[in-house]
Structure formats: structure tokens, C-alpha cells
Amino acid sequence: MDSHVLQDFQSELTCSICMNYLLEPVTIDCGHTSCRPCLFLCWEEAQMPMCCPECKEIVEKSDFRTNIMLKKLASLARQATPPSDSRSGEQLCRTHGEKKWLFCEVDKSLLCSPCSDSPEHAVHSYSPVAWAAEEYREKLLKKMDPLWQMTQDMQDNLNEEINKCQSFVDYVVLRKNMIQVQYHMMHKFLLEEERFQLKTLERQAQEIFQQLRDSEIRMAQQRERLKEMYRELSDMCHKPDMELLQDLGDIFERIELLEMEKPKPVNPELSSLHITGILDMLNKFRVNNGTIQGWANCYVSLSHEDRNKIFGDDGGTKDPQTVESYVIWSAEGFTSGRHYWEVDVGNTSNWILGVCKDFMTSDTFDSEKAFLLFSLKKNNHCRLSTNSPPLIQYVQRPVGRVGVFLDYDNEIMSFYDVYRCSLIYSFSLPILTSPLNPFLFLDSP
After folding, report:
1. What is the pLDDT of residue 4?
2. Where does the RING-type domain start and stop, copy by copy (predicted)?
């Protein structure tokens, strides 16, 4: 083959980033081709919009398919390329003076022909160095794909943890205000208890916030370790055949150990502190029969499909035949005054309760016309939240009865943990002009 043609052929199989033969070649939208590891690491370190390293054209996607044809050609070119002279002394057998061109799969050593026929290696399996190096490159590349995905997943978890920190800080400020409002509704002698609760909240907030920060640091460190391992594997793949095989060491054990290290995210949860006398005050406004299950006069059992639309799929293994989900509500709504009732949620993980407008006059349930408290189970963790405004409640989930207090005239609504005599959430309602109907969505335990 003409030398110029050969050079052009080799150039087409060379990555423009690492200047070596292509590893896992991918072709981006502009038509240029690079190693997948080189391209990903280049974009990661640039910290700017993804673009082609050659023509700088912006790249819209990153889920490229491997160019199988180029991969095979690059592999053949690597195997056909004479080894570099950087470690030429190690390429010759000290005993026989012949070139080491075989790789023993049993003890991972390089052999010359006479060594392979020796009694020590006679029963071992071995293969040409170039072929063996390609096989191990392929194994390393297969390990790199999940490592990179874990790196990206860890970045997503890190971003979520950072956002959670800010959300938690804002929530702590909001919860301070809610506690203050509750104590202003009570007598002056409760001021001492108010100060105690605020101090406890501040201490717990500092502890949990520190846990979140520590978790953020652990995730960031783990992400760096994953990226460093990915970079190390990429560097190893670019090494000459014999150098790659001799430097394998304990690389696969270190990869497996790193893959098993996955920091667990923090689930912030403040203690539900007891408010003295709160239930005594609320029970003065208790409706007849006291619980929504006792006086609500409309009941609908939900199908398995309707249940999943409301609560979602929490990954459980419940048999649809054994699941009972239903919605109950009062046909008569409140138009004035103060009202308190309790909802028995038992040990149920998934439930939604509160009040809504015009429930009986609409064909569908509109959550924007409702003021709700949610308990939803996801990834074996139950989380409380509200929808007005959408907000995660970083407090202990109530077990048993939940108290609901509606002050229609002053446009205030509150939820309480009856067992702990503590506040869950309190908020102001918009201007009310229509009746509010109590209701409950309940899933079976």
C-alpha cells in the first residue's frame, strides 16, 4: 500500500483528542468521530455547552451509538502496528533472547515461544499479545460505561442534595413562623414553651443541615472518585499492549469496590414537638361524630387503575385483589365558622386528606381547588407534602389520627398529629366564596 494512502488510512482511525487509534468510536452530528471516553471527559472538563472538539459545532444529544465498523478497523490497526520502543528491553525474553509475543491467561505474564513450551506453561492457555490486549481493552470499556453512568447519576443526586439544602433552610424559616403563630393563639404562660421549641428546632435544624452538607460532600467526593477511576481506565486503554497487560494489577478489584460504595441520601426530618393544650382548644370546634369516617355520607371504592393514578406506583408487591382504596367526602360543605375533625389513617402509607371546592359539581377532581396534605410512599420512604403551595413537610409522618382545623372566616387551615399533639402544617387560604367539603383518599395498609 502506498505510504501516503497508509498514512491517510491511519489518520482516519485516529482520535483528534488523544491522537491514538479510536477506542469505542462515536460519530457526532457534524460527522466528526472521536473516542467515546475522550469525548465525554473533554466535555466534562470544559464545563461549557457540548460541542465538537474539531469544528466546535454545538451537539444536541450525547446518546451516540458506537461505530462498529470503525471500532473493528481501529482494533485491526492497533494489532497491526509494531509496538513502540519505549519498553523495548522488556519485549525480549532474558532467558531465550526471543521476543515476547504471547500472553499467558493463567499467570498474566508475557512469554516467548520457548517459554510457552516449558513445563511451567505447557498446560496454560495463551494468546498473541495484540489479540489479548484488545480483549482486555474491550473488558475495560465495558466497565467504563456503568462507571460513567454512575458518575452522571451521582451528579444528579448531588444537584438534588444541593437543592434540598436550600429548600430545607427555607422550610426551617417557614416553620419558625408557623410555630410562632400557634403560640400567639394560646395564653401568655405558654411563651416559655414556645422559646423551648424554637431552640430545639434550631438545634435540630443545625444538626440535620450539617448532615445534608456532609452528605453533599460525600456524594461530591464519590463522584470525583468515580470520574478518576474512569479517567484511569481511559488512560490504561491507551497504553501499549504489553504495558497495559503488565499494569493491570488489582484494577478490577478496585473497580468493584468503588461500584459498591454508594452514599445514601439524607432524609431530613424534624421532631414533632408536643404543643400543650392544643387538642383541648381544637376540640371546642369539633364537628358532630368527630371523624370524617363517622359523618361523611359519600363513599366510592377505587379500582386498581384509579388507585395508581392517585397514589402512583410505589414499587410495592401488593396483589390488586387484596388492595382496598377509596375516597370519602361530605356532601355538605362549610361556608363559615371554625371546624375541627379527625381522620384515622392507621398505618397506611398512602393517603391524601383536606378540603376541596365544588367537589360534587365537577366530573373530575381538580387539585387546584383543594387544600391537601399528602402522605406518599416512594422508595420505601414516606414523605409528607402539601399542595397549596407545593411544599415538602420535613416532620415526622403521623400514625393513627390526623386532625384538620378549618377557620373559614379567618381563612386559616391547619393539620395536626393527634397522637403527638403537634403541628404538621398551617397556612392561610385565599379569599373563600364557595363551600369547602372535607374529603379523604385512603389506600389500604
Report:
1. 59
2. 15-56
**What do you get for the CA distance between the two ends of the chain, in Å?**
75
* CA–CA separation, 204 and 183 (whole Å): 20
Specify the CATH class of 88-130 in words.
Answer: alpha beta
- Angle formed by the axes of helices 129-184 and 251-260, to 10°? 20
> Among all chains, which residue has been given the C-alpha cell 505447557?
122
Closest to 118 measured CA to CA, from 108, 99, 104? 104
Q: pLDDT at position 420, please?
A: 94
Residue 29 has pLDDT above 90, yes or no: no
Domain 3-80 in this protein, CATH class:
alpha beta
117: CB partners within 8 A, 6+ apart:
none
Instruction: Report how far residue 264's alpha carbon sits from residue 295's, in angstroms, rounded to the nearest whole number.
Output: 44
| Rounded CA separation 298/327 (Å) | 8
pTM score of the predicted model? 0.64
Instruction: Using alpha carbons, select from 6, 8, 3, 64 the residue that is nearest to residue 35.
Output: 64
Q: Report the topology of domain 278-442.
A: Jelly Rolls (2.60.120)
| Interacting residues of 239 by C-beta distance below 8 A, sequence separation 6+ | 247
Contact 327, 441 (CB under 8 A): yes
Please give the share of the chain, as a percent, with pLDDT higher than 90. 26
Query: Which residues have C-beta within 8 Å of that of residue 87, sequence separation ≥ 6?
Result: 240, 242, 243
> Which residues are 384's β-sheet partners?
375, 393
Of 92 and 293, which is predicted with more confidence? 92
Question: What's CA 344's distance to the chain center, in Å?
Answer: 32
CB neighbourhood size of 66 (10 A): 14
Domain-wise residue ranges, the chain: 3-80, 88-130, 141-260, 278-442
Residues 6+ apart with CB under 8 A from 83: 91, 240, 241, 242
Angle at 375 between CA 369 and CA 378, to 5 degrees: 120
